[in-house]
Amino acid sequence: LCVAGVGGITLSLLLADAAVVWASVCGFAVSFIIDTAVFTLALKRVKMWQAVLLSGPVSMIPDTLIFLHMIGLPQFIDGQLVGKLWGTLLYAAVVAFAFGKAQASVPVHRA
Q: In sequence order, which ranges of 16-110 are alpha helices (DSSP H)?
Protein backbone atom coordinates (compact mmCIF):
# COMPACT_ATOMS: atom_id res chain seq x y z
CA LEU A 1 0.00 0.00 0.00
CA CYS A 2 2.78 2.42 0.85
CA VAL A 3 4.58 1.75 -2.45
CA ALA A 4 1.33 2.22 -4.36
CA GLY A 5 0.64 5.45 -2.49
CA VAL A 6 4.08 6.89 -3.21
CA GLY A 7 3.79 5.79 -6.84
CA GLY A 8 0.37 7.40 -7.12
CA ILE A 9 1.58 10.65 -5.59
CA THR A 10 4.61 10.73 -7.89
CA LEU A 11 2.49 10.08 -10.97
CA SER A 12 -0.02 12.69 -9.85
CA LEU A 13 2.71 15.28 -9.38
CA LEU A 14 3.82 14.66 -12.96
CA LEU A 15 0.31 14.92 -14.40
CA ALA A 16 -1.72 17.22 -12.13
CA ASP A 17 -1.51 20.58 -10.45
CA ALA A 18 0.31 20.48 -7.10
CA ALA A 19 -2.73 21.90 -5.27
CA VAL A 20 -4.89 19.03 -6.53
CA VAL A 21 -2.24 16.49 -5.50
CA TRP A 22 -1.94 18.04 -2.02
CA ALA A 23 -5.74 18.05 -1.59
CA SER A 24 -5.89 14.43 -2.70
CA VAL A 25 -3.13 13.36 -0.31
CA CYS A 26 -4.75 15.17 2.63
CA GLY A 27 -8.20 13.72 1.94
CA PHE A 28 -6.81 10.24 1.41
CA ALA A 29 -4.66 10.30 4.57
CA VAL A 30 -7.54 11.32 6.82
CA SER A 31 -10.03 8.93 5.23
CA PHE A 32 -7.55 6.03 5.29
CA ILE A 33 -7.03 6.40 9.04
CA ILE A 34 -10.77 6.64 9.69
CA ASP A 35 -11.61 3.76 7.33
CA THR A 36 -8.98 1.49 8.88
CA ALA A 37 -10.10 2.26 12.43
CA VAL A 38 -13.82 1.83 11.74
CA PHE A 39 -13.35 -1.32 9.64
CA THR A 40 -11.06 -2.93 12.22
CA LEU A 41 -13.40 -2.18 15.11
CA ALA A 42 -16.49 -3.24 13.15
CA LEU A 43 -14.89 -6.49 11.99
CA LYS A 44 -14.69 -7.64 15.60
CA ARG A 45 -18.50 -7.53 15.80
CA VAL A 46 -19.96 -7.99 12.31
CA LYS A 47 -19.38 -9.82 9.05
CA MET A 48 -16.87 -8.50 6.54
CA TRP A 49 -19.46 -7.11 4.11
CA GLN A 50 -21.14 -5.27 6.98
CA ALA A 51 -17.82 -3.76 8.05
CA VAL A 52 -17.32 -2.55 4.46
CA LEU A 53 -20.79 -1.01 4.48
CA LEU A 54 -20.00 0.79 7.72
CA SER A 55 -16.43 1.98 7.15
CA GLY A 56 -16.85 3.10 3.54
CA PRO A 57 -19.49 5.78 4.05
CA VAL A 58 -17.94 6.95 7.32
CA SER A 59 -14.54 7.52 5.69
CA MET A 60 -15.77 8.87 2.35
CA ILE A 61 -17.35 11.94 3.93
CA PRO A 62 -14.14 13.55 5.27
CA ASP A 63 -12.23 12.50 2.13
CA THR A 64 -14.74 14.26 -0.12
CA LEU A 65 -15.11 17.33 2.10
CA ILE A 66 -11.37 17.84 2.47
CA PHE A 67 -10.54 17.29 -1.20
CA LEU A 68 -13.30 19.38 -2.73
CA HIS A 69 -12.93 22.26 -0.28
CA MET A 70 -9.16 22.37 -0.77
CA ILE A 71 -9.51 22.61 -4.55
CA GLY A 72 -12.36 25.12 -4.30
CA LEU A 73 -15.18 22.97 -5.67
CA PRO A 74 -17.53 22.36 -2.73
CA GLN A 75 -20.56 22.49 -5.04
CA PHE A 76 -19.73 18.93 -6.18
CA ILE A 77 -19.87 17.35 -2.71
CA ASP A 78 -23.37 15.90 -3.08
CA GLY A 79 -22.65 14.18 -6.39
CA GLN A 80 -19.34 12.80 -5.17
CA LEU A 81 -20.89 11.35 -2.03
CA VAL A 82 -23.72 9.71 -4.00
CA GLY A 83 -21.24 8.16 -6.45
CA LYS A 84 -18.97 6.90 -3.67
CA LEU A 85 -21.95 5.47 -1.78
CA TRP A 86 -23.02 3.49 -4.86
CA GLY A 87 -19.45 2.23 -5.23
CA THR A 88 -19.39 1.14 -1.60
CA LEU A 89 -22.73 -0.67 -1.94
CA LEU A 90 -21.48 -2.48 -5.03
CA TYR A 91 -18.23 -3.48 -3.34
CA ALA A 92 -20.06 -4.73 -0.23
CA ALA A 93 -22.35 -6.80 -2.46
CA VAL A 94 -19.33 -8.32 -4.23
CA VAL A 95 -17.69 -9.15 -0.88
CA ALA A 96 -20.91 -10.70 0.45
CA PHE A 97 -21.36 -12.74 -2.73
CA ALA A 98 -17.72 -13.81 -3.06
CA PHE A 99 -17.38 -15.04 0.50
CA GLY A 100 -20.98 -16.03 1.08
CA LYS A 101 -23.01 -14.23 3.71
CA ALA A 102 -22.46 -17.02 6.21
CA GLN A 103 -18.69 -16.98 5.67
CA ALA A 104 -18.17 -13.22 5.18
CA SER A 105 -16.93 -12.77 8.71
CA VAL A 106 -13.33 -13.17 9.70
CA PRO A 107 -12.81 -15.22 12.85
CA VAL A 108 -11.57 -12.91 15.56
CA HIS A 109 -10.05 -14.09 18.79
CA ARG A 110 -11.87 -12.36 21.61
CA ALA A 111 -10.12 -12.08 24.91
A: 18-43, 48-70, 77-99
